[in-house]
Amino acid sequence: MNRKPIFDAVRKLLGRGFTADEVAAIDRAIDMATGALPANVAPEPPDTPTVPERKAEPRALGAAGEKLIKAWESCGRLRADGKYDAYPDPGSADGKPWTIGWGSTGADIARGTVWTQAQCDARFAQEIQRYAAEVERAIGDAPTSANQFDALVSFHYNTGAIFSASLTTLHKQGKFAQAAAEFGKWIYNNHKPMTGLVKRRAAEAKLYSTP
Question: What is its EC number (predicted)?
Fold first, then answer.
C-alpha cells in the first residue's frame, strides 16, 4: 500500500513535518484500519471452516421386510363396521399378550380394544422404527445386507430377542449360514411348537439368505 498520499495530506493539514513518534503512530493506525501487518510479522493462517459432522441416517425397514411382517401379522378380527377387535395370543395359556392390527401389543391393548385401520397403520409405522433402531444397535457396524436387516427386524418384531439371541452373535461374526439356521429354533410359544412360527421363521431365514 502506498502510504505517501496519506502522510502528505496530514502534513499539509498540520502545516509542518512529523516527529518519529508521530510517523510510527500514523503507521500503526493505517495498519489497524487496513488489516495490514508490519513486515516482520507473519500473517496468521486463515481459519479452517468447520464442517459439521454428518450423522448417518438410521436404517429403516425395507419393502421386503414390511411385506414379510404384514403377511404374518395381518390385520385380523375385522368387524362389520370396518374396525378391528383385539384378539388373544393363540398359543399362550392366558391369551396374553392381546394383539391388534399389525401385531401390535402393549399395556393399552386388551380384551375389548377396537381400532380403525388408520390406527393400526399408524401404530405399526411408529413401532417398526423402534424395532429397526434396536436391531441396528444390536448388530453395530457388522456388514449387513438390506435383506438380512429386514429379516432381523421381522424376527425381533415377533420375538423381541435381538439382543439375546445367538442368531445376533453369529451374524456379527459373519457366520451367515449358521445365523440363518438359528431362525428355525424360535418356533415355540408356551413351550409348544407353533405351525405358524415354523413357517414364519422359514420365511425370515429365506429372506436373510437372499442376496
Answer: 3.2.1.17
